[in-house]
Amino acid sequence: MTEVEKYTIVFLERTTTKENKEKTGGEMEDKSYIERLMEFGLTRQEAGIYGCLISEGKTTGYEVAKQLGISRSNAYNSLASMTEKGAAYLVEEGTTKKYVPVPLDEFCKNRIRRLEESRRWLESHMPSEKDHVEGYITIEGSANILDKVRNLLAKAEERVYISCTRNYLLLFVDELESLTRNRKKVVIITDQPVNFKNARVYIGNNRGMQIGVITDSKYVLTGEYGEGSLNTCLYSGQKNFVELYKSALSNEIKLLAIREEKTR
Predict the structure, then answer these.
(1) Which of 53, 75, 155, 174 could form a disulfide with 65 if both were Cys (CB 3.0 to 4.6 A apart)?
(2) Of 106, 101, 96, which Cα lies nearest the Cα of 78?
(3) What is the pLDDT of residues 69-86, one digit of tens each?
């Protein structure tokens, strides 16, 4: 067993009480906690140490190493790295060096602020982008698909058509509500009733794992998303492909409208 595996197990045992397991869903939630911290620039070991600092308070590298079952050199190297990343403060008490965690909210906001500053710099210094013909792009992975859908919705200027199961639809509530607030046309095809003010909703058959989005009649994303699926979607701005998918969706909407009219 590696030191990283060892400290992860120790961290989970130390930070997961019976009460916390009932509240958070147990060990899976703790692993997710470490992984979320890693998204803010910490390594897996640093994320575990951060959790240790949170639970233990002001402590030395020696005590961290002892608590997590890792070598002192690894503990001190990680703590030094964490101070540089803004996740921990060094407190000198005489000849003893101790560390305290930067409050989680402060740490996260600082990282986001720096990333925003870097984003603005990159945008202002970005080299000229070469014109290219829009092709067919395969997007894999649930997180990447979610990001692409959210970006498509955020950039929509006039209209959005989205087809997916109700459970998936709920992942995009903020983006869809923002569109309707800004008086942009939103048409939803789903399999269970949903309430989106100023959006046109059609209830059809079970969507399963299929998801499809058209924005401004210019861009299409379609494919499978969700647990147990391939988590693969095709994205394109090719006019012929967009028109083809738009036509298929339009025909389905017409059939659903006829069915809706008959049930009134």
Answers:
(1) 75
(2) 101
(3) 999 999 999 999 999 999
- Reading the block at residue 235, the tokens are 């994205």
Q: Strands, DSSP E only, in the chain?
A: 59-60, 88-93, 96-101, 136-140, 159-163, 185-190, 200-203, 210-215, 219-224, 232-236
What are the structural domains, with CATH classification, of the chain?
3-106 (1.10.10.10), 136-262 (3.30.870.10)
pTM for this predicted structure? 0.71
101, 54 Cβ separation under 8 angstroms: yes
pLDDT above 80 (res 14) = no
- pLDDT, residue 131, reads 61
CB atoms within 10 A of CB 68: 23
What's the token pair of residue 126? 């970005």
Strands ordered across the beta sheet of 136-140: 136-140, 232-236, 219-224, 210-215, 159-163, 185-190, 200-203
Distance CA 75, CA 67 (A): 10
Largest Cα separation within the chain, whole Å, is 83
Q: Are 34 and 11 in contact (CB under 8 A)?
A: yes
| CB 185 within 8 Å of CB 201 | no
Please, which pLDDT band fits residue 118 given cuts at 50, 70 and 90?
very high
